User: Fold this.
Amino acid sequence: MEVPVLQVNHLRTSFFTSDGEIPAVDDVTFHIRKGEILGIVGESGCGKSVTSLSIMRLIPEPPGKIVGGEILLEGENLALATEKRMRDLRGNEVAMIFQEPMTSLNPLFTIGNQLIEAILTHKKFSKKEAVQQAIEMLKLVGLPRVEEIIKEYPHQLSGGMRQRVMIAMALSCHPKLLIADEPTTALDVTIQAQILDLMKSLNEKLDTAVMMITHDLGVVAELCQRVIVMYAGKIVEEGPVSAIFKNPKHPYTIGLLQSVPDIRDKKERLFSIPGNVPKPGSIMVGCRFYDRCNKRIERCKEEDPALYEAEEKHLVRCFLQEEAVLIEGEEND
Assistant:
Protein backbone atom coordinates (compact mmCIF):
# COMPACT_ATOMS: atom_id res chain seq x y z
CA MET A 1 0.00 0.00 0.00
CA GLU A 2 1.15 3.55 -0.75
CA VAL A 3 2.99 5.25 2.13
CA PRO A 4 0.92 8.17 3.52
CA VAL A 5 2.27 11.66 2.83
CA LEU A 6 1.90 12.34 6.56
CA GLN A 7 1.79 9.79 9.39
CA VAL A 8 1.49 11.17 12.92
CA ASN A 9 2.05 8.56 15.65
CA HIS A 10 1.22 9.13 19.35
CA LEU A 11 2.07 12.86 19.15
CA ARG A 12 2.34 14.62 22.50
CA THR A 13 3.01 18.36 22.75
CA SER A 14 3.14 20.15 26.10
CA PHE A 15 3.71 23.65 27.44
CA PHE A 16 5.86 24.08 30.53
CA THR A 17 4.71 26.86 32.86
CA SER A 18 5.07 27.83 36.50
CA ASP A 19 2.12 25.50 37.15
CA GLY A 20 4.00 22.55 35.63
CA GLU A 21 3.55 20.60 32.40
CA ILE A 22 0.33 21.35 30.50
CA PRO A 23 -0.44 18.79 27.74
CA ALA A 24 -2.01 20.53 24.72
CA VAL A 25 -1.89 17.53 22.34
CA ASP A 26 -2.08 14.13 24.00
CA ASP A 27 -1.38 10.86 22.14
CA VAL A 28 -2.73 11.90 18.72
CA THR A 29 -2.37 9.46 15.80
CA PHE A 30 -3.61 9.96 12.21
CA HIS A 31 -2.49 9.89 8.58
CA ILE A 32 -3.12 11.76 5.30
CA ARG A 33 -2.65 10.19 1.89
CA LYS A 34 -1.68 11.85 -1.39
CA GLY A 35 -4.54 13.90 -2.85
CA GLU A 36 -6.69 13.50 0.29
CA ILE A 37 -8.33 16.33 2.24
CA LEU A 38 -8.52 15.56 5.96
CA GLY A 39 -10.61 17.82 8.22
CA ILE A 40 -9.77 18.42 11.87
CA VAL A 41 -12.63 19.98 13.84
CA GLY A 42 -13.39 21.01 17.39
CA GLU A 43 -13.98 24.04 19.59
CA SER A 44 -11.28 26.62 20.29
CA GLY A 45 -8.73 25.20 22.72
CA CYS A 46 -9.14 21.55 21.68
CA GLY A 47 -5.60 21.23 20.23
CA LYS A 48 -6.19 21.63 16.48
CA SER A 49 -3.76 24.49 15.87
CA VAL A 50 -1.12 23.11 18.26
CA THR A 51 -1.22 19.87 16.24
CA SER A 52 -0.56 21.78 13.00
CA LEU A 53 2.20 23.92 14.55
CA SER A 54 3.81 20.75 15.92
CA ILE A 55 3.89 19.24 12.42
CA MET A 56 5.52 22.44 11.10
CA ARG A 57 7.85 22.48 14.14
CA LEU A 58 6.73 26.05 14.89
CA ILE A 59 5.88 25.51 18.57
CA PRO A 60 7.75 28.23 20.51
CA GLU A 61 10.46 26.59 22.65
CA PRO A 62 10.23 27.47 25.50
CA PRO A 63 7.52 27.17 26.78
CA GLY A 64 6.30 24.53 24.29
CA LYS A 65 7.89 21.24 23.36
CA ILE A 66 7.10 18.04 21.45
CA VAL A 67 7.55 15.52 24.26
CA GLY A 68 6.67 12.31 22.43
CA GLY A 69 5.65 10.60 19.22
CA GLU A 70 6.58 10.73 15.55
CA ILE A 71 5.71 13.09 12.68
CA LEU A 72 6.58 11.19 9.51
CA LEU A 73 6.60 13.13 6.24
CA GLU A 74 6.96 10.38 3.63
CA GLY A 75 8.89 8.38 6.22
CA GLU A 76 11.15 11.19 7.53
CA ASN A 77 10.60 11.95 11.22
CA LEU A 78 10.19 15.73 11.50
CA ALA A 79 10.17 15.51 15.30
CA LEU A 80 13.90 14.69 15.11
CA ALA A 81 14.81 17.03 12.22
CA THR A 82 17.27 19.90 12.76
CA GLU A 83 16.11 23.50 12.42
CA LYS A 84 18.15 23.81 9.22
CA ARG A 85 16.37 20.79 7.76
CA MET A 86 12.98 22.22 8.78
CA ARG A 87 13.77 25.52 7.03
CA ASP A 88 14.42 23.51 3.86
CA LEU A 89 11.15 21.60 4.25
CA ARG A 90 8.84 24.48 5.22
CA GLY A 91 7.31 26.02 2.13
CA ASN A 92 8.93 23.38 -0.05
CA GLU A 93 7.67 19.95 1.08
CA VAL A 94 5.07 21.15 3.59
CA ALA A 95 3.34 24.56 3.58
CA MET A 96 0.80 26.30 5.78
CA ILE A 97 -1.97 28.87 5.27
CA PHE A 98 -2.94 30.89 8.34
CA GLN A 99 -6.37 32.36 9.07
CA GLU A 100 -5.35 36.03 8.91
CA PRO A 101 -3.22 36.82 5.83
CA MET A 102 -2.34 40.34 7.01
CA THR A 103 -0.28 38.83 9.84
CA SER A 104 1.49 36.49 7.41
CA LEU A 105 2.30 38.95 4.61
CA ASN A 106 4.99 41.56 5.22
CA PRO A 107 3.41 45.03 4.79
CA LEU A 108 6.78 46.54 3.72
CA PHE A 109 7.26 44.38 0.62
CA THR A 110 5.24 44.00 -2.56
CA ILE A 111 3.27 40.84 -3.27
CA GLY A 112 5.74 40.03 -6.05
CA ASN A 113 8.79 40.40 -3.79
CA GLN A 114 7.35 38.02 -1.22
CA LEU A 115 6.24 35.39 -3.74
CA ILE A 116 9.53 35.51 -5.64
CA GLU A 117 11.56 35.24 -2.43
CA ALA A 118 9.57 32.14 -1.40
CA ILE A 119 10.28 30.52 -4.77
CA LEU A 120 13.99 31.44 -4.89
CA THR A 121 14.50 30.15 -1.32
CA HIS A 122 13.55 26.61 -2.29
CA LYS A 123 13.97 26.31 -6.06
CA LYS A 124 17.07 26.70 -8.22
CA PHE A 125 15.36 29.24 -10.48
CA SER A 126 16.75 32.36 -12.11
CA LYS A 127 15.08 35.65 -11.11
CA LYS A 128 13.23 35.69 -14.45
CA GLU A 129 11.94 32.12 -13.95
CA ALA A 130 10.84 32.96 -10.40
CA VAL A 131 8.89 36.01 -11.63
CA GLN A 132 7.17 33.85 -14.26
CA GLN A 133 6.35 31.18 -11.67
CA ALA A 134 4.90 33.86 -9.34
CA ILE A 135 2.68 35.21 -12.13
CA GLU A 136 1.50 31.71 -13.03
CA MET A 137 0.64 30.91 -9.40
CA LEU A 138 -1.38 34.13 -9.01
CA LYS A 139 -3.28 33.25 -12.19
CA LEU A 140 -3.83 29.71 -10.89
CA VAL A 141 -5.59 31.01 -7.76
CA GLY A 142 -7.93 33.10 -9.91
CA LEU A 143 -6.58 36.62 -9.30
CA PRO A 144 -7.20 39.22 -12.02
CA ARG A 145 -4.63 41.76 -13.39
CA VAL A 146 -1.73 39.75 -11.90
CA GLU A 147 0.93 41.95 -13.59
CA GLU A 148 -0.38 44.87 -11.49
CA ILE A 149 -1.02 42.92 -8.28
CA ILE A 150 2.56 41.65 -8.26
CA LYS A 151 3.71 45.29 -7.81
CA GLU A 152 1.19 46.12 -5.07
CA TYR A 153 1.45 45.94 -1.26
CA PRO A 154 -0.76 43.75 0.97
CA HIS A 155 -2.84 46.70 2.26
CA GLN A 156 -3.90 47.51 -1.31
CA LEU A 157 -5.72 44.15 -1.64
CA SER A 158 -9.01 42.94 -0.17
CA GLY A 159 -9.09 40.16 2.44
CA GLY A 160 -10.14 37.57 -0.13
CA MET A 161 -7.37 38.62 -2.53
CA ARG A 162 -4.77 38.47 0.25
CA GLN A 163 -5.92 34.96 1.16
CA ARG A 164 -5.56 33.92 -2.49
CA VAL A 165 -2.03 35.35 -2.46
CA MET A 166 -1.27 33.27 0.65
CA ILE A 167 -2.58 30.14 -1.10
CA ALA A 168 -0.47 30.97 -4.17
CA MET A 169 2.60 31.40 -1.94
CA ALA A 170 1.93 28.15 -0.08
CA LEU A 171 1.55 26.22 -3.34
CA SER A 172 4.32 27.98 -5.29
CA CYS A 173 6.83 25.18 -4.64
CA HIS A 174 4.23 22.39 -5.08
CA PRO A 175 4.40 21.02 -1.51
CA LYS A 176 3.41 17.45 -0.77
CA LEU A 177 1.34 18.58 2.22
CA LEU A 178 -0.68 21.78 2.67
CA ILE A 179 -1.92 22.69 6.16
CA ALA A 180 -4.80 25.20 6.17
CA ASP A 181 -5.54 26.61 9.64
CA GLU A 182 -9.01 28.22 9.57
CA PRO A 183 -8.28 29.75 6.13
CA THR A 184 -11.73 31.31 5.69
CA THR A 185 -12.51 32.54 9.23
CA ALA A 186 -11.71 36.22 8.59
CA LEU A 187 -13.63 36.37 5.29
CA ASP A 188 -17.27 37.09 4.48
CA VAL A 189 -19.51 34.21 3.42
CA THR A 190 -19.37 34.70 -0.36
CA ILE A 191 -15.56 34.98 -0.32
CA GLN A 192 -15.38 31.92 1.96
CA ALA A 193 -17.23 29.88 -0.66
CA GLN A 194 -14.86 31.08 -3.40
CA ILE A 195 -11.76 30.20 -1.34
CA LEU A 196 -13.13 26.71 -0.54
CA ASP A 197 -13.95 26.09 -4.22
CA LEU A 198 -10.44 27.25 -5.09
CA MET A 199 -8.80 24.90 -2.57
CA LYS A 200 -10.88 21.97 -3.81
CA SER A 201 -9.95 22.75 -7.42
CA LEU A 202 -6.23 23.11 -6.63
CA ASN A 203 -6.27 19.88 -4.61
CA GLU A 204 -7.67 18.05 -7.65
CA LYS A 205 -5.24 19.70 -10.10
CA LEU A 206 -2.06 19.35 -8.05
CA ASP A 207 -2.94 16.17 -6.06
CA THR A 208 -1.67 17.84 -2.88
CA ALA A 209 -2.54 16.28 0.49
CA VAL A 210 -4.48 18.86 2.53
CA MET A 211 -4.99 19.07 6.29
CA MET A 212 -7.94 21.43 6.86
CA ILE A 213 -8.28 22.77 10.40
CA THR A 214 -11.65 24.36 11.12
CA HIS A 215 -14.47 24.71 13.65
CA ASP A 216 -16.99 24.94 10.79
CA LEU A 217 -18.69 21.63 10.02
CA GLY A 218 -20.06 23.11 6.79
CA VAL A 219 -16.48 23.48 5.52
CA VAL A 220 -15.81 19.82 6.37
CA ALA A 221 -18.95 18.64 4.57
CA GLU A 222 -18.04 20.68 1.50
CA LEU A 223 -14.35 19.90 1.24
CA CYS A 224 -13.12 16.85 3.15
CA GLN A 225 -13.13 13.08 2.58
CA ARG A 226 -12.27 12.15 6.18
CA VAL A 227 -12.67 14.03 9.44
CA ILE A 228 -11.07 13.95 12.89
CA VAL A 229 -12.98 15.41 15.84
CA MET A 230 -10.70 16.65 18.64
CA TYR A 231 -11.57 17.52 22.21
CA ALA A 232 -9.21 18.66 24.98
CA GLY A 233 -6.09 17.51 23.10
CA LYS A 234 -7.37 14.06 22.12
CA ILE A 235 -9.07 12.55 19.07
CA VAL A 236 -12.59 11.55 20.15
CA GLU A 237 -13.93 10.43 16.75
CA GLU A 238 -12.45 9.73 13.32
CA GLY A 239 -13.87 8.42 10.08
CA PRO A 240 -15.23 9.16 6.59
CA VAL A 241 -17.19 12.43 6.46
CA SER A 242 -20.34 10.66 5.22
CA ALA A 243 -20.30 8.17 8.12
CA ILE A 244 -19.73 10.78 10.82
CA PHE A 245 -22.38 13.18 9.49
CA LYS A 246 -24.99 10.44 9.02
CA ASN A 247 -24.21 8.40 12.13
CA PRO A 248 -22.11 10.27 14.72
CA LYS A 249 -21.18 8.09 17.68
CA HIS A 250 -19.44 10.29 20.25
CA PRO A 251 -21.67 12.53 22.41
CA TYR A 252 -19.41 15.50 21.60
CA THR A 253 -19.71 14.97 17.83
CA ILE A 254 -23.48 14.55 18.19
CA GLY A 255 -23.59 17.85 20.12
CA LEU A 256 -21.51 19.67 17.50
CA LEU A 257 -23.82 18.51 14.70
CA GLN A 258 -26.96 19.40 16.69
CA SER A 259 -25.63 22.93 17.20
CA VAL A 260 -25.42 23.61 13.44
CA PRO A 261 -28.37 25.83 12.32
CA ASP A 262 -30.77 24.18 9.85
CA ILE A 263 -32.95 26.51 7.74
CA ARG A 264 -35.46 23.67 7.25
CA ASP A 265 -36.05 23.37 11.00
CA LYS A 266 -37.19 26.61 12.63
CA LYS A 267 -36.30 26.57 16.31
CA GLU A 268 -36.69 29.33 18.86
CA ARG A 269 -33.31 28.49 20.32
CA LEU A 270 -30.24 26.76 18.85
CA PHE A 271 -28.80 23.74 20.66
CA SER A 272 -25.54 24.27 22.53
CA ILE A 273 -23.33 21.88 24.47
CA PRO A 274 -23.39 22.96 28.14
CA GLY A 275 -20.15 24.15 29.74
CA ASN A 276 -16.78 24.92 28.15
CA VAL A 277 -13.69 23.08 26.90
CA PRO A 278 -11.62 22.31 30.03
CA LYS A 279 -8.37 24.13 30.60
CA PRO A 280 -5.49 22.00 29.20
CA GLY A 281 -4.04 19.77 31.91
CA SER A 282 -6.96 20.30 34.32
CA ILE A 283 -8.42 16.80 33.81
CA MET A 284 -5.92 14.05 34.60
CA VAL A 285 -8.33 11.16 35.35
CA GLY A 286 -11.29 9.87 33.38
CA CYS A 287 -12.95 11.01 30.14
CA ARG A 288 -12.25 14.66 29.37
CA PHE A 289 -15.81 15.20 28.14
CA TYR A 290 -17.34 13.82 31.36
CA ASP A 291 -18.54 17.14 32.85
CA ARG A 292 -20.40 18.13 29.65
CA CYS A 293 -21.70 14.72 28.57
CA ASN A 294 -25.40 13.81 28.72
CA LYS A 295 -24.65 10.08 28.35
CA ARG A 296 -21.96 9.70 31.00
CA ILE A 297 -21.74 6.67 33.23
CA GLU A 298 -19.81 6.23 36.48
CA ARG A 299 -16.94 4.49 34.73
CA CYS A 300 -16.26 7.64 32.63
CA LYS A 301 -15.23 9.53 35.77
CA GLU A 302 -12.49 7.06 36.67
CA GLU A 303 -11.17 5.74 33.32
CA ASP A 304 -10.09 7.32 30.05
CA PRO A 305 -11.68 5.39 27.14
CA ALA A 306 -9.62 4.05 24.25
CA LEU A 307 -10.49 4.51 20.57
CA TYR A 308 -12.92 1.75 19.60
CA GLU A 309 -13.80 0.76 16.03
CA ALA A 310 -17.52 1.44 15.56
CA GLU A 311 -17.53 0.52 11.87
CA GLU A 312 -14.83 0.04 9.28
CA LYS A 313 -12.44 3.04 9.51
CA HIS A 314 -14.80 4.76 11.99
CA LEU A 315 -13.18 5.16 15.42
CA VAL A 316 -14.81 6.48 18.61
CA ARG A 317 -13.34 7.26 22.05
CA CYS A 318 -16.32 6.33 24.23
CA PHE A 319 -17.23 3.51 26.63
CA LEU A 320 -20.73 3.39 25.11
CA GLN A 321 -19.10 2.22 21.91
CA GLU A 322 -17.13 -0.45 23.78
CA GLU A 323 -20.42 -1.76 25.18
CA ALA A 324 -22.00 -1.70 21.70
CA VAL A 325 -19.06 -3.74 20.34
CA LEU A 326 -19.38 -6.30 23.15
CA ILE A 327 -23.16 -6.66 22.65
CA GLU A 328 -22.69 -7.08 18.89
CA GLY A 329 -20.04 -9.74 19.53
CA GLU A 330 -22.37 -11.66 21.89
CA GLU A 331 -25.19 -11.53 19.33
CA ASN A 332 -22.88 -12.87 16.63
CA ASP A 333 -21.87 -15.74 18.94
